[in-house]
Design goal:
Helix 13 runs parallel beside helix 16. The chain contains 17 helices and 16 strands. With about 450 residues, it is α/β, with parallel strands linked by helices. The protein starts with a helix and ends in a 17-residue tail after the last helix. The longest helix has 19 residues. About 35% of the residues lie in helices and about 15% in strands. The chain has a seven-stranded mixed sheet with strand order 4-10-9-8-7-5-6, with helices on both faces. The chain folds into two domains: about 190 residues, Aspartate Aminotransferase, domain 1, CATH 3.90.1150.10; about 260 residues, 3-Layer(aba) Sandwich (Aspartate Aminotransferase, domain 2), CATH 3.40.640. The structure holds pyridoxal-5'-phosphate. The site of pyridoxal-5'-phosphate (PLP) has 15 residues, from helix 5.
Amino acid sequence: MTDAEKRVKELAAHAFGTWSKQNAYKSPKLITDAEGIYFYDDKGKTYIDFSSQLMCSNLGHKNKVVIEAIVKQAEKLPYMAPGFATESQMEAIEALNSIMPEGLNKFFISSSGTEANEAAAKLVRQAKAPAYKLISRYHSYHGATPTAAALTGDHRRGPSEQARCVVPGVRFAPDCYCYRCPFAMEYPSCNIQCARYLDYMFKEEGNIAAMVVEPVVGTNGRIVPPPEYFPLLRKICDDNDVFLIADEVMSGWFRTGKAFAMEHWNVKPDIMTTAKGATAAYTPLGVTAAADSVSDHFEENMFCHGHTYAYHALAASAVKPSVSEYRRLEASGLLKEVSDHLKVKLNELADKHECIGDVRGIGHFWALELVKNRKTKEPFNVKADKITGKPLMTAKISGEAMANGLFLNAWYDTLVIAPPLIITKEQVDEAIDILDKALVIGDNEVESTDIPASRSSEFS
Ligand SMILES: Cc1ncc(COP(=O)(O)O)c(C=O)c1O
């Protein structure tokens, strides 16, 4: 065993591996460098980052503009208590004001997406008291601490729930998941029942403070709603005096082609939360952005919230340069050119590989949903397999891709295609070639049909 291997084993022995049984976290891969869309391990092997790490390294690795700003701030003033104003905080708030949808003009800066959502829940529950219930959806992830975990629909809520580490008062609504419609209907004749049902749900439940949604569902499927969904949901929230919270932790920052996904439908939430791309992952930072509908309440009432690291000067210094880099990329035309190309290439994979049941997404945010049988839509794996540890087909495919120099995240049912926004068409082709070969593993286990892959991406 080399020295490096010994130290990695020591690391795993003394550090909790996240979202993992500890006996399955023994020898994480040692990464020693990264640049652009590539990262490198200690053996000198190169990997294409086809998921932007955790869908957060939107500007790729080693962006000079962002790094320079952080270095300057580190030398000058890395931290002041949140009660003081700093140049870095002012620049971050100005940058947020310049890019956030109009009307979202009061911000709280924390250190993560989870914290952004905790703050949002507190804001709406205080402002709408005594109403306290929060409505979320099953295909969702909103974070790891008690309120954010309670809002999470995926398997990560389970163990926290059993350990009484979630807060009460959350109810779950059906997803707008057209490939597996919870109402067994088809768009457009469904008349968007998944949204309309919420009017019934809100009225029957009562005491609802807010509905929390990922505008384009992230980890849990890159689910793009039909165009009518959000205008309808906004109206139903208004009719029932319920706040709408858009969790854009993953879907924000040009991931879907626009600065924020809600802009695709021109719908304004009362609160937008974000993190990840806000600093392109160069520093840890979360943002809770509120409209007057929420923030007015706090003029005469205490904003009962804060952290030692709120508005952290060093963390905040990455916001302004990130915003200017996103704007530069947008103006260059690269985003649109490459996302169109990515869509074509993923659709070609779906034509070729029978294990792909559905291809869907928008911008640089795509899912390949894998199935054993396109006709019955029988999946290789289900949600529970993530808890029991049953081997996943997605993991077999992503493991093979990794061995050949392509990193992509594997969910239980989908592969996550979310490359850094700086990726070129040629680099997309390089990645698709590796993925193309790895998908054969899935094809070898399908029951053949003559049904083509579904394209829920037709909304994008
Ligand atoms: C939609 C969404 N919300 C919240 C979070 C939590 O963010 P963080 O991991 O920064 O706490 C995530 C993380 O992946 C997310 O995707």
